[in-house]
Amino acid sequence: MAAFLFRRLFYGLVALWLISTLIFLLSRLLPGSFGAQILEAESFYSKGSQGSREAAYQAYLQRTGLDQPVFYFSISSSAEPAGIRHIFPESDRLLLRQLAWQYGNPELATAYFRALKQFDNPVEQPGQLQLKARIQKLHASIDPETISSTTDSIYQLLQGQQQGLVLRSAAEALIGDRQPYRALWPAFSWHGVHNQYHRWFSDVLQGDLGKSYRDSGAVQDLILQAVGTTWWILFFSMVLTGFLALELSILFVRQKGGKWRRLLLPLLFFLDRIPVFILALLLLILFASPAFLQLFPVYGMGAYYVGSQSWPERFASLFPYMVLPVICLVCVNLPYITNQFYRSLADVSQADFTRTAKAKGLSEGRVIRRHMLRNALFPIITLLSDFLPALVAGVVVIETVFAIPGIGRLLIESVLARDYPVLVGVVLVVALFRVISHFVSDLFYGLADPRIRLRS
Amino acid sequence: MKKSATLVCFLLFLLSFCSQPQRQPDEVRVRLFNDPVTLNPVNYQNSSALQLVNLLFQSLLTVDLEDNTLKPSLAEDLPVVERTDSTTLFTYSIREEAEWADGSPVTAADVAFTLKVMLAPLVNNEQIKSQIEFIRDIASDQRNPKRFTLLCKGFSPEMELLTGDYFILPQYLFDPENLLASFSVPELVNAAPELTNNKSLKAFATHFNSVDFARSKDLLKGSAGYVLENWTTGQYVVLKRKQNWWGTNTGRAASYLTANPRQINFQIIPDNTTALLALKNRQLDVLSNIPATEFDKLREDSTFTKEYALHAPDSYEYNYIALNTRLPKLNNRYTRQALAHLVDADNLIKVTLSNFGTRTAGPVPPAIQPYYNQSIRPYEYSQARAISLLKAAGWIREGDGWYKTIDGKKEKLTLEVNYRAGNTVFEHSALIFQQNAAKAGIVVELQAMENSLFRQKARTHDFEMVFRSLSGNPFIFNFKPFFHSAYSDEGGSNITGIGSPETDALLDAINVAETDREKARLLKRLQEILHEEAAMIPLYYLKERIAVHKRFANTKISGLKPNYDVSAFTLKN
């Protein structure tokens, strides 16, 4: 048994590492980044020029280490010029990358790109606007025909000036020497330990999940706080759901339970079909609104209170806030779990040992609770083991509607804000609980069925 | 059975006592739709935080929501402006009475310190740094520690506002070890690369970038009338009035330097329906941004209006459709005008906003009558006009749509319309446009985009047609960033890409216009050109929808964010 558990633990850790690494890398693929709002200008008047915003953005990337490569190595196209990631602004980098991929020649693409960049600060002269429009066109296009015709017209516009000539000949060279298949050839580059992943992972191994981009708070504190607020709601709802589901399914398998089953099962199915947010709003309108019954507070988890409260006082003040979310969660989970419990019990009720127990003359309650239940436990353990991660993962809809700052909302907010450390931290913690819960359920399987213990 | 029923009834009865937390009459409860995340006065990130920081810290100038004008806040008066060819000098004096939470006076040294924090490398200030890029130096008056002059490069009309539009930080509290004292402002403006290795700078940056400056009660103490009392993440933020705050002794200025409510309790409620229910439950005193249809219903509800006052001021949020004129198919003016005729803006206001919008012919708000060009008639919905304009632009109707040969290639007129995912008003507007366009034979594809992606696409000018909004104000009209050709490069804020020598000259002239009359004339001309070009199809200016409890007077409801001044609220007798 110990070897079996040890092996499971080892697999669990490997899975954990894989999940967190994948999420780390995938999150970096999201378009946009936290610092990108530095580049925004959405107001009637300019708050800083484009150039100074770009400079501030670069300073931000450098300060936070986001300008480093993401992983130990990267695989890109061999057509891509070396050092392309140092090119700012990002739109320029994108243009050069597209040019290199399109024409398959990094050297000539860079030469053309440089020639184009020479026009960034054109001197005041007649025809400047036309020139600008053409330069813009080149910035937006990698199509050979457009490039060739536009560079030609720039050359004519500048009446043979050096700049125009350089640009035109660079464009001609680029278009003339196309190696379209080179872009398909992969290039492997090694970045060493100076990368974002290495830094993050070595911190994680030391128990530090990093700092939030948004408020510089430690990620573990944020997660702990978020779990803390929703923990009790989820815990109560799980216990209540488990208890109700068990009692209901026992009621259903009893001989006299037929009429209850016919009455309640359709009702549960109906409940199952109501979307969570509608259920939550319905509960609010029914039990927290002056329009009907105003029994519970509408939102939040307790009000601001001056002075200290003892533990029971604190609990009593929080209790009314928890009632509606707990009822809501119970309603959401109850139908499915009851049905599973009932199916599992019903299967066992056909088994030989159940018949034997009945033949021995045991009471129905005893047969169900002592003989059938233990054997019906397997699917139940599996289901319950999924509860534990859910306990941490939270329920976004409930948290939003009832304005409870749980971990579900933390995750959504961190994704929307591109707050990578929090995002990866939350996923890592949820995955950790998943691994733990599977480990615990393995333990319980062993306890529930001696055969598993003996076999392993 | 009977017993248990009685028990349940009893329990419910007991619980009903819990539903209404006790309320103090002079505590104001305001809803925030998201957590402020950080209250750092230099790198706050959302509007909720800005609203809160405004109650903790002050800037040199402020906007009095009573009449929407710029007034001196920490400064004694508006700055004295001296212009030379290449520089502009702004001279300010700080109010005699102004003091920090510990009773020490606010001086020019604090302003210099603030500028240093905003400019220093390694410090988390990138969000705000570029806003003061034009400030080159600060000179303090030797005789008067409260008087100083800001030396600025060039001139633009918004400079006056921008020189006074950042929160002044207390040096004694933020830098007790005087780590920044050895640096001068020009030194930090020039930002030599070796500065990043400076020990003092590094130490200050580590100190200032920490989470304490985002949420500590002891550090976030400014010169304004409130202090942070409690902040429970994601639930509520409580601010408490300072004892004997200096602002109340400022004579006439005390009408807008206010700290009236004893306590302000900001409740964080992300969901609109929940917030509305909390309002109906009397759990909130102030709720803004009420959905239009709900606002109409509240107006009808007499029990509600007995206790709450409803307001719908004209906001400065301009909503429009931007067309990318860089695209060959959209660079003809007639094509864009045809599309403008397919946007049924009046109907959009009626259907998507329950009439809570004011139709506009251009980016100048109709509420600003001297500058708004009354003679322009907004594009009206007309299929016939649209079709004749499309023909004038050279499009030919063939079977399944409109075709035109551009640069030797036959192109079909199709459009991809983008809007921010989750914005239901724009979503419905886009759907209505899609139907109108379909009637005219134009295929329109709708694509909602997640916010970051949406912004990125606009920034890189990678779009065809977008529904957007722009927040403005009634005092500065510098449209250069939106319509000047200098801003139309990649990443530039002129996303439509329009701009001609005439508009460029006009935009420059507006910024240096000496008289209001001249400015009005130029702005009206600009509106004409913009209307003609139709690269930006104007829709409407929104009307805000706010409810405030009637026990409060002096609410200063305004079209400017946050639409009310909670620090000014007084109890009615």
In short, what is this structure?
Chain A has 456 residues and is mostly helical.
What keyword list fits this structure?
heterodimer; A: about 450 residues; mainly alpha; about 70% helix; elongated; B: about 575 residues; alpha+beta; six-stranded mixed β-sheet
Mean pLDDT of chain B: 91
Mean pLDDT of chain A: 84
User: Largest sheet of chain A, order of strands side by side?
Assistant: 1-2
Q: What fraction of the residues of chain A are assigned to beta strands by DSSP?
A: under 5%
Distance between the termini of chain A: 5 Å
Structural account:
The complex is a heterodimer of chains A (456) and B (573). Helices cover 68% and strands 2% of the residues of chain A. Chain A is mainly α and 456 residues long. A two-stranded antiparallel sheet of chain A has the order 1-2. The model of chain A has no long low-confidence stretch (mean pLDDT 84). Chain B is an alpha+beta fold and 573 residues long. Helix content of chain B is 32%, strand content 22%. Chain B contains 20 helices and 24 strands. In chain B, the strands form seven sheets. A six-stranded mixed β-sheet of chain B has the order 14-21-13-20-18-19. A four-stranded mixed β-sheet of chain B has the order 1-10-9-8, with helices on one face. In chain B, a hairpin with a 2-residue loop joins strand 16 and strand 17 (409-412). Chain B is globular. At the A-B interface, helix 2, helix 3, helix 5, helix 9 and helix 11 of A face helix 1, helix 4, helix 9, strand 8 and strand 10 of B.
